[in-house]
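Before a computer can learn anything about folding, someone has to put a protein's shape into writing. The three-dimensional part falls to structure tokens, numbers that each stand for a local backbone shape. The protein below has been through that process, and both of its lines are reproduced in full.
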Amino acid sequence: MTQRQIPKWSELKPLLRTKPITTNPTERRLQKALTIADLREVAKRRTPRSVFDYTDGAAEAEISLRRARNLFLQIELQPSVLRNVAEVDTTTTMLGKASALPFAFAPTGFTRMMNHEGESAVVRVAERAGIPYGLSTMGTTSIEDVAEAGPHARKWFQLYVWKDRAAGEDLVKRAAAAGYEALMLTVDVPVAGARLRDVRNGFTIPPSLTAKTVLDAALHPAWWMNLLTTAPLTFASLSEWDGTVAELLNALFDPTMTTEDLAWLRSIWDGPLIVKGVQTVADARRLVDAGADAIVLSNHGGRQLDRAPTPLRLLPDVVSAVGDKTEVYLDTGIMSGADVVAALALGADACLVGRAYLYGLMAGGERGVARATQILATEIVRTMQLLGVRSVSELDPGHVRLP
């Protein structure tokens, strides 16, 4: 029979531990977020539905996005044991320069809609983390203001080709004058994808004050207060717009652009050129032959053509075809550091993350972006250690099994 006794204070005392009290509510929220999925849940609670859905959603039935995420989830990692992994080097090379982590912050449109701190907050985190940041043509902070916010950050300017080529040329020249390192041409938006969540939510730029949004304001007062009491949205590339995102894209972007137009772009930009939105091996070869310094395998986060090729599935074939001629990056579906490691093992030189840091931004502004970066970095290091690799260069296809 078990003998019981009343514990003595001397036995209980070592078990009693108090946690430091965090008085700042933002810090409390972020400390509890252990994964990007956790940040997503915080973002969903703190952001108006239409804004959250703009970030979280994809095109039509959102099949492309689900397939991308599911493929990452189905990957089987192949560890090698009994390796000295006390120290892990996450440094990689992007466009011939060192990046402290093997990913960059992807360009995202209308970032100050997610949180009033916007692009300036993101570039400051990128500067501290030692990784590149891409400012979107459809950003809500000017080229010059982003440069001022992150003077020592590696800044890339993402360009859509406009019907008004003179306006596009002006943007390129402004980026060059402001010290941007590279130009990222996005080629998968000849017309806007059918982003049905935005249509159903009546989402406009900026948000319209309707009965629905006024009711939503009561549920998210801090977000609306920040929107209404900070400076009006300033677009990186245009003065103002009053309409839906799809209407804006279709009004501005040139669906007639072809590979031959890259020569025009080269005539006005002499720095590195990244082409984003590559979805076939044939196009990868064509763009490398046309002079791309790097390509991004991407289906625009599933936001353009639904049922488009899944970038991770395409990656090994593209690397085999052009990996010795250009740098190959990958985006779409990345929600963890393990996802980044898997892409690197399959041959990507680096990854771009977008939604992951936007969830952090919505959850807690600049501190939320920093938390997202910390989560991804920690997961990358731990995954590499458990795989038995000490540097990014040691990752190879033998560490990954695709379904």
Summary: Residues 277 and 298 are 5 Å apart (CA to CA). The chain has a mean pLDDT of 91.
